[in-house]
Specification:
The structure is a homotetramer of 340-residue chains.
Chain A lengths: L1 E8 L7 H8 L8 E8 L9 H13 L7 E6 L8 E8 L11 E8 L11 H17 L7 E9 L3 H18 L23 E6 L6 E8 L6 E8 L5 H10 L6 H4 L2 E8 L6 E2 L2 E2 L10 H17 L5 E4 L10 E8 L7
Parallel strand pairs in A: 2-3, 6-7, 10-13
Antiparallel strand pairs in A: 1-4, 2-4, 5-8, 6-8, 9-14, 10-14, 11-12
Helix pairs in contact in A: 3-4
């Protein structure tokens, strides 16, 4: 078993030609695609239709296989961020083992549909927790192997979005042993000291289930890819980004950075209105939404470190990393010349 | 002779209470203020009135001294950037010399009023060049001492803004020996290989003269402050930012970073539509101006390195550093405990 | 006693030269100015500093008289709206009576400062109600004479803004007999069937008192000016606008419309997401705030009818006219040639 | 021969269920659809992908018939505007004649592909002119019968957009006898006195041909529908809107307005910066594009008159109606109870 990761460019949210070319050249087997994660160039807010447009375009391309992969898109390519998508495939063959002994593993799971009154409750958190464990089992990972869990959960109203994210984050945290299972749903959006450092959760009206993708490193998987992640203490946490590179054994040289194959960041505008004591204006800007502000800043920092704007940056980090912070993750090859 | 630098917070563009407190405590002598440079929280575009509001507020505070300092404000505190202003004073007393032998020096000069048809021409560049030389002489600096030149020039139409900036940058470049004096004004906005790595130029309808502030290090000045700058090759140029810290002998520790007293960045959205080969969307976003995009990204990067969002980030970098790039500068104390 | 109304242009929020010219020519006596109401060209949201800038500019001009007038500014000149301000003066002399027997009357009053926990409560409503009655008495108006009441109340948090407006609207409604005095503060933002058709209320952190300006027609006042107003059933209510002209005896001809000296509109994006059964997108647009949407639409309609973009359009119409609607008012001279 | 017009709602740019339902009930024959014109809820600017998304959604629904209709979408439903689409069908059967003797006629034509250097030239204008004549002939209309011509032309750069629109407008104007055929392409964007009062032209990178839809009234067509249009002198021209209703014999009552089946408006922010002498801020607003401003204002006016936000409002009116103005058109049934 091994995973492949293709990072592809799009000219616009209707353009899936890069994936089409790989399919035509049989470099990717559509049956083996397990998830597609990407940044589209909308505003990343409720009226961002670039996610739906790109998903429709992919489904047109992938045809009958369309329902199988998880589609995980975040709108908003502020600043130096570049629209792109990452195709995760799981291949049954074992190849050369990872030098560290553990290689990138990918597991996905989907919960049952939620009733509207279950959204943002302990019941949702428990379901997500079970799905994370199921995805871990299916991909032969232990909790300690997991580095990044992407969850997409349902919401019905704007107000329920944050609660759905909170429930998802608690579900991940419990599954990974970061949050005590005896938590109360009253802690949601209240107790910021409870969080998962490896959860990245979004919510949207377009799903009724919880979709879960777990990324980690497993001895049962082979190949040159691996993943690392770190919590970010705040939006200025350069050390966390450098720490991820260190964890991957990457030096910040062209050859070193060429090993990076995907990067993911989750963060939020500090709700105190200050970062390290200095006032920011993200929360009071009537012209530019706070999510656009924070994505642009985090993108500028992480892209600067990696020398590449193709980063999955997403806002809304309740219980995902420390308050005012978030997390950063990267997938790298052990050898900069390895392809896919 | 020595310079002081006070970096102050504002609650909003009408709030000058931090400076008022320093004046009341006689920590700043209004007669010695030579320039005030800051970021206000508008959109940084043509209908950004926060610059005018803050200038009016300062003039109300400084009263009869109002006409003396240069007021240099850039709107737009996207992402992690923090509204703030930096008060530069020049004091006649010599104090302990800088350990390196050269201390921060500040020189200002103003050209005569331009005729509208002189804007964006060689005549403007020549005038700016003379003013830079005059400011250098008045502050006892050689061209090699200069690290950062801020120019504010006049414009009459939106189209003339970029030409006025180009003329200003050429003027600085010639004065500093970075651009050959035999240039043609036909190179403006055309030949991106000609640039000054130490010029930061803006233009606006509110001035009819060119205002020039030259910052450098001079053996004739004393005190613990000094300045360093580097060109940025592109908006991802983390090495340039780290290089400035290295030039100042600063390690990226809390104590080291506490030595930084001001930081300035100039950059632009790459006009090719790509950064290191990857498409960006700054130039085609109809909702969020390209200048807001680039300021947010550069701010995220530089603030991440310095651990502080109080950075003067300004867009519109024609002939100011390499195409698609710009420059970064910082002022630091030789001792983190020194005050002002 | 008679009122004068000067509608003046501004080039930007720092420009008070039109009023300065009238003061210099002694056409306006600063001692007689009772209120200045205007539209400035910011975004009309929490980070709109054009209101503060223009207020500061006026206070600089009016000097020691600065504290006396009410300053009532609304940001946002979307679409065809034109930045302008209307100077209301109250003059002690009687002049020729209004043909109808009742002429424009202006009364102002200010409540005591509110405690933070009084904001948005019945206590605030009662205070506003008393202030409206006091302003009516001081200007010799009965409740039936009143056509338009502008209230500016305090708020401490974004959440308290709407409650403060609701309390203000109830206060006006009770004073004018439109809302039963036995109301409960639990009706605030809940019972949309209770409203005043003559209240225009805003709230802001910049005031701690409630400021009230009452406009109506009174037999005790003289001169050619009078005022009319109508509730607007929704944002498409052209008949309400035409009705105001009819009430003023104005035909929609150049000569007729030249009699109009000021116009005020209050409205809101329909919170059901629909207008007359058709979906609107104002509430889900992440790029452009709903208040900017609704001001632009109402401005387009009313300016089209009046042939003039100088209209005071303000959003946030809780309990001010029917749900999804608001109110429209105009001041006109009985003779198109009358000046001031 | 007769035309039908179905005005349909969409929940979002991926929703074509309203048309699907009509196709399922065989109320519309997909073979007879000649054009679909609509407003989608993007920003209406270069990065508005809601047009492409909705077009893709329609093509998925209409399948093999997808290439046949003209797809004409304008983004931007500012203010009271409602996302919707209008399906034009041409049916071969004659039905009861229009009371006036002339009924709504629809003709479409497409030019050959343009070379990039033909865009914005006299050659493009001539091609459009021929296409308009061809569409008129095919729909048995004389130039005097035509009321509204929609043109979509190609562009290659942002700068070429306005020239392409100008060429299209001149083409229409010549075909309809409004502009002398001896014009020079040097008049494009220069001589605003030359215009067509019946042209509505857009340009985009997504087409290489010119697509033309001509709407008018013809004695050769039958049925209860007809169309009227008027030039708008400026963005406040309420009389033009009322004039269109008068031309259609419609009183502004619920029953009268129920006869209206579609409405189209073209306009632009006055490039002088003033409307009827008063300054507007549309052209200097860095947060909100001028096209969003003008669409919101025109939408507010026309929707107010018609009592309905389902209006096709489009900006960019070079040589389409008077400078600073544009045109307004409406299609109505002779009987408010007629369906489709």
């Amino acid at each position: 078993m091994h995973a492949t990761v293709h990072r592809l460019a799009m000219r616009d949210p209707g353009d899936v030609s890069a994936l089409a070319a790989l399919l035509a050249r049989r470099e990717i087997d559509p049956q083996q695609i397990v998830a597609i994660l990407g940044k589209t160039e909308g505003n990343g807010l409720v009226n961002d239709y670039t996610r739906g447009y790109f998903t429709q375009s992919l489904k047109l391309l992938l045809g009958e296989h369309a329902e199988r992969p998880l589609y995980i898109f975040s709108g908003g390519t502020e600043g130096v961020l570049s629209p792109h998508y990452v195709v995760f495939s799981a291949k049954p063959q074992a190849i050369a083992p990872h030098p560290s002994g553990k290689a990138l593993a990918v597991g996905c799971a989907v919960t049952r549909e939620l009733q509207p009154d279950e959204i943002g409750t302990r019941a949702q958190a428990d379901m997500v927790s079970q799905a994370v464990k199921q995805a871990m089992r299916s991909a032969l990972m232990e909790a300690g192997d997991v580095r990044f869990v992407q969850v997409k959960g349902p919401c019905v109203t704007p107000a329920s979005m944050a609660y759905s994210r909170a429930a998802g984050a608690f579900g991940v945290g419990v599954a990974l042993g970061e949050i005590d299972a005896g938590f109360s749903e009253n802690d949601f959006l209240k107790d910021a000291t409870r969080y998962s450092s490896r959860a990245s959760v979004s919510s949207g009206v377009e799903v009724r289930v919880n979709e879960v993708m777990v990324l980690g490193n497993s001895a049962a998987w082979s190949g040159p890819l691996s993943i690392a992640s770190r919590p970010m203490q705040d939006a200025l946490d350069l050390d966390a980004v450098l720490g991820v590179l260190a964890d991957l054994g990457i030096e910040r040289t062209p050859a070193g950075l060429a090993r990076v194959r995907a990067a993911m960041v989750k963060g939020e505008p500090d709700t105190t209105g200050r970062i390290r004591g200095h006032r920011h204006t993200m929360l009071i800007d009537g012209d530019m939404n706070a999510q656009r502000h924070i994505r642009g800043a985090l993108g500028g920092l992480v892209a600067g470190v990696l020398g590449d704007g193709r980063i999955f940056v997403s806002g809304g980090a309740e219980h995902q990393g420390p308050a005012g912070g978030g997390l950063v993750a990267a997938i790298a090859a052990s050898d900069s010349t390895w392809r896919a």
